[in-house]
Amino acid sequence: MQAPANGLQAKLKDHLRLKLLGANALWSGDALITTHNQHPRQHESHTKTRSLHTLQIPVMEVTSNHTQAVSGWAAMDASGKVVPFSFKRRETGVDDVTIKVHYCGMCHTDLHFINNDWGITMYPVVPGHEITGVVTRVGTNVSGFRPGDRVGVGCIAASCLDCDHCRRSEENYCDKVTLTYNGIFWDGSVTYGGYSDMLVAHKRFLVRIPDSLPLDAAAPLLCAGITVYSPMKAARDAAGTSPAKEREARESLKADDFVLSTDDKQMQAMARSLDYVIDTVSAQHSLGPILELLKVNGKLVLVAAPDKPVELPSFPLIFGKRTVSGSMTGGMKETQEMMDLCGEHNITCDIELVSTDRINEALARLARNDVRYRFVVDIGGNASKL
């Protein structure tokens, strides 16, 4: 399938803007008008206009309620680098939990936002949505958490809390979902992520980290883990793009089988053998060869977001009655369920811990796919400068 025409590409990008910004929005001619959700209350704010690709959107960077000084690391432009960045977070509200951040996983999404690959980045952007740490303070309406608790924050900072999806704890599919960073919060402020020493989160959007799980190796579960857990509870088949990964898949990851996707003979030998495939490739690629692996009525689920459209030929769909769908992280109930399961069975992530003075080095390596399998930034460590 060819890339969409320019007009369609623009519409798709604009739709993505609306979903990721997490604000109520309306089209007015060629302008985007944001009408921020005033939940739970609206604060006075300092408003600044930011450039969003070709759109000019008024964004409230901070409000009068943002008084807590924070040190973090932010990308100031599309150069691909992050630098030390001081900013302010909101006070701990009655429904809020304040967290001292210990670790933050480095997701490929961080790269996309840092580089403005999707054309929706609001600079400065503080990345990070695989956040683990310890509670330091709770609001008066918070009963489920207390200081000293080990907690995690994933991809979601807010949602409307009132739609059908929110009532079913599918907050990730709420029309007003706000991401942990590069989103617009209820009070109109920009959300900043976990590449920082402290975070304030609404009680709805935290999970408890079981005592059996180390905070560093548990961090990637908050995005990478739930992103796979949600569309498929368990999978044992594996297909990869590198021969070097086969031994790792069989021995370390306990895969029953391994198929090299660039080897035509291996792919043909596995034709019509799988019921389900989760596609985690974040680069542009063709879905055709992967679809041929599926049985009749098989299902391919996309969980990555390449910056260019994937190729989707029609014949493998038609002649196999196959389905292609997508999945984005998971709701809060499901995320806690996954975390509890991992705690019960001692499931963690294979990580490479990096100090804050090596964030840019790790980002460069991540861009080259030079990581096994997740970088985790030691936010609470001794290193504090880049």
Q: Determine the oligomeric state from the structure.
A: single chain
What profile does the largest beta sheet have? 7 strands, mixed
> Which geometry do the CA atoms define?
globular
Radius of gyration: 21 Å
Q: Report the span from N to C terminus.
A: 43 Å
Number of strands: 20
Kindly name the structural category: alpha+beta
Q: Provide the residue-averaged pLDDT.
A: 83
Task: State the helicity in percent bands.
Answer: 10-25%
Low-confidence stretches: 1-12, 21-58, 234-241, 382-386
- Work out the helix count: 11
Q: How much of the polypeptide forms β-strand, as a percent range?
A: 25-35%
Summary?
With 386 residues, the protein is an alpha+beta fold. Helix content is 22%, strand content 30%.
What keyword list fits this structure?
disordered C terminus, globular, 7-stranded mixed β-sheet, 386 residues, disordered N terminus, 11 helices, 22% helix
Please outline the helices and strands:
Elements: H1 6-21, E1 24-28, E2 31-35, E3 45-52, E4 55-63, E5 66-74, E6 83-90, E7 96-106, H2 108-114, E8 131-138, E9 150-153, E10 156-158, H3 164-167, E11 178-179, E12 198-202, E13 207-208, H4 215-218, H5 224-229, E14 237-240, H6 244-252, E15 257-260, H7 264-269, E16 274-279, H8 288-291, E17 294-302, H9 315-318, E18 323-326, H10 332-345, E19 351-355, H11 359-367, E20 374-378
